[in-house]
Structure formats: C-alpha cells, structure tokens
Amino acid sequence: MHDNRPLYQIIFDDLKDKIEAGLYAPEAQLPTEVELAEQFGVSRITSKRALIELEREGLIYRKRGSGSYVKLQDETDAIPYNGFSGASPIVSMILPYMATKEFEYVVAATDYLDAHGYYLSIHNSNWSKEKEKELLSKLAKSGLSGVILYPLSTISNVDVVNAISSNGYPLVTMDQYFDSLNISSVVSDNYTGGYLAASKLIELGHDRIAFVSSVSIEYRSSVRDRYLGYCQALKDHRISIDSDWIYTDFYREVNEKNAKTFYQALLTKLLSKKVTAIQVEHDHLAVDLLNNALDAGISVPGQLSIVGFDNHEVSWHAEVPLTTIAQNYYELGRSAAELIVAGIENSGSQPRQIKVPVQLIERQTTGPRPNREDMFLSRTD
C-alpha cells in the first residue's frame, strides 16, 4: 500500500518508535543526517527536518559538531535564560504554508541560530490574514526573542506589524518588504529576476510579452518588483508596455472545477492579442498555463514561450521543463536569521534590507518568436 506520509514524517515516526521501544536508550547517539538520508533514500534536508521535529517533540537533543542524542524523559524542557532583555532564546518564524522550498528557509535559519545559541519555532498562518495577525500579536507578547515573518502580503496586517516594530520588538520580514515601514527585510532580487526573464524573451525575438500573476501587482512586493523589472526590460529595448498584455488578480475566480476552462480562455485571449511569450509570476501558475496550452494543442515553445519564477521542483518535472528564475531559499533563511540576531543583540542597530541574487535557468519552454502567420496554428486546426 502506498504510504502518503511526507518523507520526513516516515523517518520521524521510525526513530520515535525506536526511542519509545527502548531500541535507542537515553543518551544514545542517533544516526547522522547523512546516514539517515542514505538509509531512507532521501535528501539531507529531509533527514535534517526529521531530527529537528524530534528535537521539538523533546525526544532528542543535539550537540553542535557532535550529533543527535536521545533525551532523558525526566529532564526539564525549560530553556535557559540567555541574558537578552529577559527573553528566552527562541526566535519564531511565521510562514504562510509549509512545503519543500519553505523548509529550506527553516533549515538555513536553524543552522545560523544554532550557531548563535538560539532555538527556532515554526508557525503556519495557512494563508489566513486573521491567523497571521493572531500569531504576530501572541508571539510578540510571549517572551520570545524575535520573529521572522514571511507575510501573506504587504497590504495585510500593516497596522499590527508597525505596532510591534515601533515598540522596539525585533521583527524581520522575509521574501517581502513593507515600503512604508522601517523594518529589516531579506528578499530575493525580484526586480532583477523580472528584468532577466523579459530580457531573455526579447533576446529570442519576442516583442509581445504578457505578464501574468494570479494576485494583484500591489498585493506583494515580490510580485510588484518582478513586474517593474519586466517593464524596465521592455522600456530599455524600446518596446511599448501594453496594458492588454498584463493579466493579474484572478485567484478568487479559479477553482478545481473551472481551472481548465479558465486557463484555456486566458490563453486564447492572449493569443488573440498576438502575444508570443508569457512571463509568469511563479512556477506553479506557469506550469498550469503550460499544461493547458499543450492540452489545447498550442506548441510550447513553438507557438508560445513561457517563463516562470522560483525554480520550484515542478519547473523541472513539467512535461516541457520550464525556463524560470531561481531563488536561493537557503540564503534567504540564513540572512533572515542573521538580521534577527543582529536586531536582538544590538537594539540600536538600523534596519536594513538584504537582496539575495537570483539566476535565470533556461530550459525548454522558451524559444525564438514564431512567424506571425504561424501563431494561431494548432494541432486542433
């Protein structure tokens, strides 16, 4: 029978069962991340997550440079005072959801915080504005040293974020930044990413390039910066920016039942405007458009080129591997941890923004602009 548990959960459950059964006695050393990865045939990131979750459960403790050991169950779970303003040495990270790329943030932040005497707790807002607000308010009052926030958007909960940071509580945003607030942040260089994607398409001869995002341009700073990079590339190459090529803010209109109809209608609309390439806000949406284009008999990249953003796993597993912009998730998490520690240990430090470089990954969804007379040909004609 197929095991639907996440890979890290399989390792976690196996080790937990062995600890509870006494196969690993108190103070016994567990296999290393590398050994577990080889044993279960997974990545080191996956095995590391299993160990982190065991530590959070209070079943093991880790010695930096030594390994992971089974914890005596009568030991206190209290975390010693670290000397910073009476706060416990715990930093919380609020994420909008948990997936593979989000866990890279966790691994990176944990690595940095471990080296500086801090623990990391993870919280999931589950794409809920209300849940994010509740977590921010509760965590800031709970005696934790600071919070790393991956915001749902940069137009939500601005009041709460401002109140917390204005009170001097250490807060860093990751992935996005609030234009109007004086808060440290670490983000990918989304502007350059948008510029690189558009420039590649222009280099291939495309001069009618659409920009597609399921959320509005102003909803997230990351989307806005990608869009502005796209616009600047067109401007630098003397290509007019046509608002008819910009399609955004439709996520409320799409669901499992109507997705195919919706995306194929969107593709038909863009092709009717003689668009030959689409620059998409993120890889999942880009792959949805790619799959629907292929289902409709539209050749990619023969008739239509598509570029995504993120270098998510779906981008290289797509039927036609997706050209995309790669973000460095590990460096985003590490830099966020660096900024929050600086804010905790030096309350007088000035807020700053770190931009993490991005990279164009060219795969098979981009090609030369098709001849105008061939643009509307498809296998269904």
Automatic annotation (TrEMBL):
Gene3D superfamilies: 3.40.50.2300, Winged helix-like DNA-binding domain superfamily/Winged helix DNA-binding domain. Pfam families: GntR (PF00392), Peripla_BP_3 (PF13377). It comes from the Bacteria. Keywords: DNA-binding, Transcription, Transcription regulation. SUPFAM superfamilies: Periplasmic binding protein-like I, Winged helix' DNA-binding domain. The keyword DNA-binding applies. Residues 5-73 form the HTH gntR-type domain. InterPro entries: LacI/GalR-like_sensor (IPR046335), Peripla_BP_I (IPR028082), Tscrpt_reg_HTH_GntR (IPR000524), WH-like_DNA-bd_sf (IPR036388), WH_DNA-bd_sf (IPR036390). This is GntR family transcriptional regulator.
